[in-house]
Amino acid sequence: MDVIRIEGGHRVEGVVRVEGAKNSALKLMAATIMAPGVNTLTNVPNISDVHVMGKVLKRLGAQIDVLDEHTLRIDTSTVDSWETPYELVAQMRASTAVLGPLISRFGRATVAMPGGCNIGARKIDMHILGLQALGVEFDLDHGDINATAPHGLIGDTVTLDFASVGATENLMMASVHAKGVTVIDNAAREPEIVDLANLLNEMGAKVHGAGSPVIEIEGVDELHPVTHEVVGDRIEAGTFIATAGIVGTPIEVCGFEPSHLGLVLRKYEQMGITIERGERMVRVYRDKPLASVDIQTLPFPGFPTDMQAQTMCLLALGSESCVITENVFENRFMFASELQRMGADIRIEGHHAIVHGVKGFSGAAVKSPDLRGGAALVMAGLVADGTTVVSDIYHIDRGYERFVEKLQGLGAHVERVTVPDTPVI
Ligand code: EPZ
User: Dihedrals φ, ψ of 35, to 5°?
Assistant: First the structure.
């Protein structure tokens, strides 16, 4: 298996460019199902989740050409199936993003019920309830969700219990061809939602209010294929910004919109990190001790849960103590137990992590719990005393393109090595 080995204490600085957003690209790929013809997506990250979504689209009948590492030419005129098999949904639960597009195009869909993952149950009850309000009927058959719309989709108002990103996206896509107007209230407001709405409108849809809590979609008859650039990945950017915060030496992070990380940047400045904002870039460094601040994760524009582990890594070296509250996922503190192996002093109490700052980390063998926790463990290794070895790095490969190479480009002593699989005893 592959592991990432980090030798701590070396100077890390320079310029890094982030890719297109994983959490947008996957949904944009799914949305091409609704615009039969040749769609071209640029600034697509070359990561394993994108490869899996490509497999899903091909299984549905689409043809995909990789024009260069970051440009996909997706011809969905040949899509002739509405069934996504369990083995692909099991690999990546974001495959459920094809539910709305398939219902929109075919009036039906069969998607394997996604399982949970390390960070939580990842249910899709809000997706189902919302789609039922638009006239979709569901039955669960041996782990598959069979969705049909016998009377077509009729626009209605759907109020989400929680500002779910996935539910907002599926409802937005499913309602594109619905008769009349659909209103999604308490909608997710993430920048990736806005990117998807922009793509749909470029295809000829009429989506208004994306980025606000109320999104209105006026049904249209058909969509046409487009060329669209994926929005920059604010979470990959935030990961490198946190890296600059932990090493202290300056890192320039390019290729994203700083306003997409508003609260994160403001919290990091409160922690004593200097952030110089520019056009689609920031320059980050720290020349004072890390101050401890409380964090609570919430839907955008609140503090993103996808930045929780990276921020916990910073706060674990804070000058005092603080509390991190995880309000989005029910089990997203596994990173803490790995970081404790490196010397962090963190106590978990339900949805709260009480973090007491320590002077430093010591290198250790640790296991990546999910993609963000894995990246944060590598971050910790950069400043740890000695060598850190991170395993289960397939999590990292799901969401970070060339993570090791980018860190090497910043001077980090980090390498990807293949080691014999340790026998399970
Ligand atoms: C998206 O997941 C992202 N994934 C996640 O990023 C991100 O953490 C999350 O949004 C929140 O921002 C992709 O976009 C591929 P949700 P999603 O629906 O859509 C519960 C990463 O690290 N819920 O907003 O699944 C759910 O279990 C990943 O890049 C229901 O209970 O997130 C979770 O606790 C991790 N029922 C909470 O709501 C539902 O029907 C938020 O989920 C839907 C969600």
Answer: -125, 80
